[in-house]
Amino acid sequence: MNGTSYLLLAYYSLKESLVYIKNTMVFLLFSAFGLLIQYSAWYALYWSVDFMPVMGRSFETMLSYQILMVLIRSFTDANGISRQLEQRMVSGEIALDFLRPVAPRGMLIARSWGEKIFQMATDLVVFSVAVLAVGGIQSPASIEMMGLFLLSLCLGYLINLMFELLMGTFAFWFVGVNTLKWFIDFFQLAMSGAIVPLWLLPDWLQFCTKLLPFQAILYAPAQIYLGGMSNMEIVQTMGLQVFWILLLMGLQELLWRRGKRRIVVLGG
Amino acid sequence: MIEASHLCKNYPIKNHNNPFRKDRQLRCAVDDISFTVSPGELVGYIGPNGAGKSTTIKMLTGILLPDGGMVRVDGIDPFYQRKQNCRKIGVLFGQRSQLWWHLRLDDTYRLLKHLYEIPDEQYRKRLSVLREMLELDSFWDQPVRQLSLGQRMRGELAAALLHSPSYLYLDEPTVGMDVLVKERIRELLKELNRQDGVTILLTTHDLEDVERLCSRVMVINHGKLLYDGTMAQLRSRCTADATVTIDIQGEPTIIDGLRNFRQKGNQITFSLNRRLGEGQLLAQIVGCNHVRDITIQEPPIEEVVRDLYQRSGEEEQR
Known about the structure:
A: mainly alpha; 12 helices; globular; B: 318 residues; alpha/beta; Rossmann fold; 2 domains; six-stranded mixed beta sheet; 10 helices; 34% helix
């Protein structure tokens, strides 16, 4: 392992993404605007029931969930990895990754962190503004809960990272994995609790989400943060997160080993 | 030592536009190629577009896994012992950049220093040598995106050489360069080969590169190795014509059987082909004339190679 080179890779990709700073300003607007729409929708829902709890959650909890989700999505985001891997295969740049005496996937992850840090900074701005605008959000029951939330957040990131790597690895077989990714992104958006908290979903759909890794990425840490989980449930939730990490990691490793044997460097 | 024996690589090719059809044809990009390159050699690897040059290089460097045969570089398998192999080799793809587009050259080199774990002292020395040899100073502070092709290529070459590799694979290092830059790159390669004993394998379409640099040349077409030997031997195998010009004192006496015969005063010119046994004609004409001067112009190297490519194409069709 060679820590400095990974740090440099992250630093350089951060520097390169700063070249496109105007794009980020647009994304910042998107993110803020999306939050505003969600706020309006939940406000309308709760207004219609005179701000009584819906499915056992108060308006404040709902609002806290939605604002917190900005931060959770931002931190667990490993986006860019499957896209980058695909891009490097399409352009043939993947050849250069295999010419260095370090792990190509390590370099990929390091590079994604450069962009990630930048993106997290902008999301933090949106988050802070939103918190100030609604006059503060709920905080976890205790310091220990906060710690567990952070741990679960990291696990969520790892699940997403492994998932993205797995998707990207498919590019060894199908050069374009974008369509597959879109299809899965749709499920991910609906089943992870990113837009609608899963407690609002009907039971059968909630059951379906438990079979997929997506809820373990976003919904699980949010639940731990907002409380209302017994210690046993927290242990189960985190256990499930670890299970998904190991499963996806194993699958990814298997595919990667087979995939790199059939690498094709496109474009001469 | 680079050893390749019975190397094969097939690519699945889709030769239809129907996205729902799954059938693909296998195209053989490299077909049973064997050779060895000894340490310190400078070998040119030439062939027309699509001949399998780059594919061979990618197998030698461990990026592609051969479908058949094996590669060893100093006894190491470049694919399965990739990291070990990477430390010893430098690679330059003329068509691909390994520099960070929006950053300065310096930044890329610093990253490479850490990737290859080059000690500080050695890095400083090496970098100053390369800076001087490749004359990088004039554009040292500009981001790579602003460099001209020639400047960038010099930067690329420095990046490939930074970790002092003992094997250098160059895939079209002079593509798109002007005469001056080409010349500088050639000088550098020669020096690297002679002084540091770097083993160099280079593919190119510029036959002048080969003629100026390489003691040995390998020619490939349709995935098959057509020729492996010295430049001089390659010429002698050629079926293309040499041109003979003779200055004669007095009125020339002409004999039958001269091809492309032309006469201009006391000077006669005709084509000669050794492989057709026409050397005899030369002896005859010299015998019956008073020769003042004689020049034999060998066919240009382009002609030699074109001849080789063409013959391999005909054999393929048969």
